[in-house]
Each structure stands twice: as structure tokens, then as C-alpha cells.
Amino acid sequence: SHLALTVFRALWYVSFQLCRECRARFAGSLESPISSSRQPSKLVKMSAEFMFMDDDVQTVPIPDDNGTVPHYSQPLLTFAAASTITIMVVGLVGNLLTVVALLRCPRVRNVAAAFIISLCIADFLFCAVVLPFAASRFITDTWSHGDFLCKVVPLVRYGNVGVSLLCIAMITINRYIMIAHYGMYTKIYRPFWIACMIIFCWSLSFGMQIPTFLGYWGIYSYDHNLRTCSIMKDRWGRSSKTALFMIAFVIPCMIIVCCYARIFWVVHSSENRMRQHASAGSGKDKKEMKSKRNEWRITKMVLAIFLSFLMCYLPITIIKVCDSNVQYPVLHVVAYLLLYLSACINPIIYVIMNNQYRQAYKTILLCKRPRLLSLTPAGSSYGGKSREDSKTMVSQVSIALTPVRCSDLPDFADRHL
Length: 417
Hints:
Elements: H1 2-29, H2 42-51, H3 74-104, H4 111-140, H5 146-180, H6 182-188, H7 191-207, H8 210-213, E1 219-223, E2 228-232, H9 241-277, H10 282-322, H11 329-352, H12 355-365, H13 387-390, H14 409-416
Antiparallel strand pairs: 1-2
């Protein structure tokens, strides 16, 4: 029955296109502009909607108001499907490995690790729930999973993207407070408040989706232009898509820019003060060279984090706002792939670049006991370093994950960054 229905729909669609072409030629032969000749009639639109009443099978795209459907070439869809599956596998393995490593290795448990775990969980859910349907969409060039999943999948997609952005912003704020307001750090980052911050990230992100899920500010429905389920206009013509994309990008972007600008200024000022009080001679020159090298390493770290944020989220934000009618399908596919890439690139940016986390990965992959992991500042046991020296540890990924004063940054950076 499904095969017969599919054949009937295909025949109807071909007939519809032929009728449109004939009507257009007939109107041109009369040399009189007939607006209705280039628009499908109400009966045709009703018939097209009737074709998609089956919740389980949707195989023929409905023409938009201009009677056209965006064309996605087969090579583009094949490349997008392969890329999505690759990102999904890498994201699942990378995020799961990160969570297990952080939970099993006590030495790397700190404030930033709590936010990184939340970020990895959000990215893992994104890879497990959203990306399989995204790959299916590229393979079949349509949505064929029913109305219920058509509401749940975009809810999870938008919600998890919001959680990821908010967690990144929280990590940035953590770095800023630790570097610029050291005296407030221990008062703010207590277990209770850390839990509240993480709950806030998840509650705000998914809470913003409730009006759309209930149909009060747009609806979750099938987008025939994008061939996937997304936020569509409701019966009053309202949609939250543009507002959500602008809020999700602009606010975290402003937080990251402001915090990192302040962090860089504080670190730079601290190094200048150290140069002024350094002893004269070759020792001073050596310290200045180290300081310049450390400053460049910190700059590259900050630049890499911020550029990865822009690379993943800026394209989809611009495309959604500027090309809402999908006039350029290729740009939409590329923008979605970059958005999907954020789910597997975050562990690389925030975890892999940290030598301590790399050791934690080795411990998990080689099935070693966590107590054998050496995660002290110089990579040795506590017996080789004083307890005071061990407190000056600063993580590469967050510039400073544990309380440390600015004066301690250059020496540590030379050992670890």
C-alpha cells in the first residue's frame, strides 16, 4: 500500500508540474500576464497538503508559494550525510570518553570540569538524538519519522545548542572571575552555586522552547524548503526562530569577547609589572623572552577558542536571518554541518589541548587505575613538588581552572602552555 501511495504521489507531482508548464506557455502565447497561471490553485494546494497527511511517509516535497522547491544535488546530500555520520561517531566517542575521564580521575575534578561535563553531556545528547535524524534527512532528502518526532527532534536540537552555548559562556565567566576577581572566586564557586549555574543553563535553554512547543510562538513542523523539522510560523504568522538564533549567538558572543579581553589585559598587565621588578642581567632577558612566548601562547589559545565559536555558530545565524526562504540550499547545508561540528570539536578545544586530560584519556583507554595518573603541575608526584607549588596549577584549556594569582601565570604557562 505504501508503494502504491508513493507511486500515486509521484505521478501527481509530475502531472502538477506539467500542468504548470502548460498554463505558463498558454499565458505567454496570449501575451497577457495572468498571475494565477504561475500560482497553484487552492484546490492544488489542498491536494498537496492531503498528500502529506500520512505521518509515517513523506516523500514528495510541496512547492512553496512561488511554485518552486529548493534543489539539493545528490552529491551534496551524499557528502552531507557522510559528514554528519562521521561527526556523530566522533562526537559520541569523544564526549563519552571525556565524561568518563573526568569522573574517574579525581585529580582533574574542579570547577571548570563540572561545566565541561555538562557541555559534553549536551553534545553527547545532540549526537545521539539529533544527528541520526539529520543523516536520515540527507540520505532520503525528506522527513519520514512522523509528527511526534518532528516536534521532539527540533526541541532537543535547539535546546542542546543553547545548553552548549551557555556552558561555554559559564566557563568563560569562570576564567574571568578567577583571573580578574580572585578574591571573589572561592565565594562564588561553591558546590551549591555551581549546581545552580548548571541547572540554570539547562532550564533556560529548554524553557525558551516551551512557547514554541505549545504553539504560542511559532510551531515545530516540517519545513519543505529545508527538508527537515524546524521552527515554523504559527497560524498568526509568528516564529521564534530568528529571535532564538540572535539571542543564542549575540549574548554568548558578547560575554566571550568581553571576558577574554579583560583576561588578556590583566595577564598582560601582570607580566609588565613582573618585567619592571625583574632583576637586571641575563636572567631578566631570559624571563622577558619566556614572558613573551607565554603571552603568545595564551593569545593563540584565546583566539582558537573564540574562532571555533564563530566558525560553528556565526554561519547558521547569518543564513537563518538573511535567507529564510532558502534561496541558496548549499549554504544552508554547509551552515548546518558547521553547527553539527561543534558537537565534536568542543572536546578537542577544551579537553585535548590540556596535558592533564590527555593523561586522563590514556588512563581510561589503557584501563589503568586512576591513582597511577600523575597530574601535578610538573607532571610528577606530590612528593616532587611542594603543596604550595601545586596550588599554582592553571589549565591550558581554561587558562586557569583552579584558584591561582596572576603573578603565578607566566611560570606556570612556561611549563604547561
